[in-house]
Amino acid sequence: MGQFSYLQRSTYVRLKELSPIRSNAMQLENRPQVDQKSLVRDCGVGSYRSDGMKLYDSVRAPNPRRVRIFLAAKGIDVPRVMVDLVSFEHRSDEFTKLNPLRRTPTLELDDGTVITESVAISRYFEELYPEPPLFGRTPLEKATIEMWNRRVELGFMTEVQMVFRHGHPGMATHEIPQVLEWAEANKPKLMASLRLINDRLGEVPFIAGETYSIADITLLCAVDFMKPTKIKVPEDHTHLWRWYKEVNARPSAKA
Ligand SMILES: N[C@@H](CCC(=O)N[C@@H](CS)C(=O)NCC(=O)O)C(=O)O
To answer: Which of 151, 177, 203, 227 is deepest in the core (most CB within 10 A)?
Structure first.
């Protein structure tokens, strides 16, 4: 497998160790071609390993975590390259060539194709490995999961991120311009979204209904990302707490 051997479960290398980064089709010509469909089955039941792709991942960041949890819930192991957002590795020329938006997660397939956006990456794996379904089975389930995933991501999760990115002094070099008023403006929005989510979880076990889905993964990552904003989930949001304990206890939540 060229420069690196990705034979162990949860193997990762750091971006700076990947030199020169192989990020375009020309540079990829000499790489071994691995059929994406021939992803090898790992030793565990329902567990898979892909030797032919790389997931560019970062610690403590909510979006890469969404993909890690999604993969863990399906038992898929993808070799990872750790990109340090604090030291701006994602703004290096090498990473910018790979993903001009300079964001993680980023998935590079063996033929050099790049997929970005947590949901797009997750959907790709859902298509390759439909079980267990995390985007729904029936047309109604699929629509409902899509609806809640978008509500959580575009509403609550974005509000949490705005409070963090525009309010935290450590983010001043990431979020330019940093607008403190925008952080403040998002605090009541965040609390209102959280109330609606709590109400919803009083009616159904999981945010999109009867089954665990990608929408729960998005919600878990967003709730956990409230920690650096120093805003707490109110104690009286008992439905949300019930849900949180349940989804947070799943092994994939540790990914
Ligand atoms: N919509 C994208 C968002 C990706 C994103 O914003 N990633 C953050 C980490 S959570 C990032 O790379 N930030 C780099 C920066 O802010 O400069 C997704 O769903 O993947």
So the answer is: 151
